[in-house]
Amino acid sequence: MKAYWYDNTPGDQREPHDSGRAVSEDKLASLGVLYHNCPSVEGVDAIAKERGYKNRDTICVSPQSMGDVYEDKVKMFFAEHLHEDEEIRYILDGEGYFDVRGEEDEWIRIELAKDDLIILPAGIYHRFTTNEQNYIKAMRLFQDEPKWTPLNRGAEVDLNPHRKNYVEATLKRSAAVN
Ligand SMILES: CSCCC(=O)/C(O)=C/O
Ligand SMILES: [Fe+2]
User: Fold this and answer.
1) Which residues form a coiled coil (predicted)?
2) How many angstroms separate the alpha carbon of residue 162 from the centre of ligand 2?
3) 87 lines ligand 1 (CB under 6 A)
4) Other C-beta atoms lying within 10 Å of the C-beta of residue 88
5) 125: closest CA among 88, 166, 175?
6) CA of 126, closest atom in ligand 1
7) Whole-complex ipTM
8) 138: Cβ below 6 Å to ligand 1?
9) Reduced 3-state DSSP string for the chain
10) What is the pTM of this model?
């Protein structure tokens, strides 16, 4: 895992966009984004049990596995959104980037590879993209039914109770201490 401020320059979303300014694991944790390295699935099972996850599936995001819909899927994942549930992603193979918003709405890019596990809190605005290798295989863990419901950013979603709770409980506290 490597995290850094996104450089905001134009160019393909799959390029690194590394500003050269690193972001620490502590900084991510202050935003409610938790990272673990899990060399074996037992570590994943322990985290899932502790946090009450009941379901999981595996997704492969690549032109080989998705065919004609690959580019549309990548565009969809890259639209800024939130979820009403916490989400865990465990990388089984390949690489990709999760971008999350900091306190001042700046993007932080989190580069993930095999054995990396990330927990994103409910209500955080984020997006995902493959990198230039166009290949990632990940385990998706769900607290309840295995559904992936993105709520794309907009005035209405800003007022979503899960968003408001995240802003009050996590984002404002993070801004106060950082
Ligand atoms: C590598 S997992 C596919 C993307 C995804 O599950 C997600 O939640 C994007 O926001
Ligand atoms: Fe998401």
Assistant:
1) none
2) 14
3) yes
4) 22
5) 166
6) 10
7) 0.97
8) yes
9) CEEEEECCCCCCCCCCCEEEEECCHHHHHHCCCEEEECCCHHHHHHHHHHCCCCEEEEEEECHHHHHHHHHHHHHHHHCCEECCCCEEEEEEEEEEEEEEECCCCCEEEEEEECCEEEEECCCCCEEEEECCCCCEEEEEEECCCCCCCCEECCHHHHCCHHHHHHHHHHHHHHHHHC
10) 0.96
Question: Tens of pLDDT along the chain (178 residues)?
Answer: 999 999 999 999 999 999 999 999 999 999 999 999 999 999 999 999 999 999 999 999 999 999 999 999 999 999 999 999 999 999 999 999 999 999 999 999 999 999 999 999 999 999 999 999 999 999 999 988 877 889 999 999 999 999 999 999 999 888 888 7
Q: Is the CB of 94 under 6 A from ligand 1?
A: no
Q: Residue whose CA is closest, atom 6 of ligand 1?
A: 140
Asked whether residue 162 is marked as a ligand-binding residue, the answer is no
Ligand 2: distance of its center to the CA of 3 in Å? 17
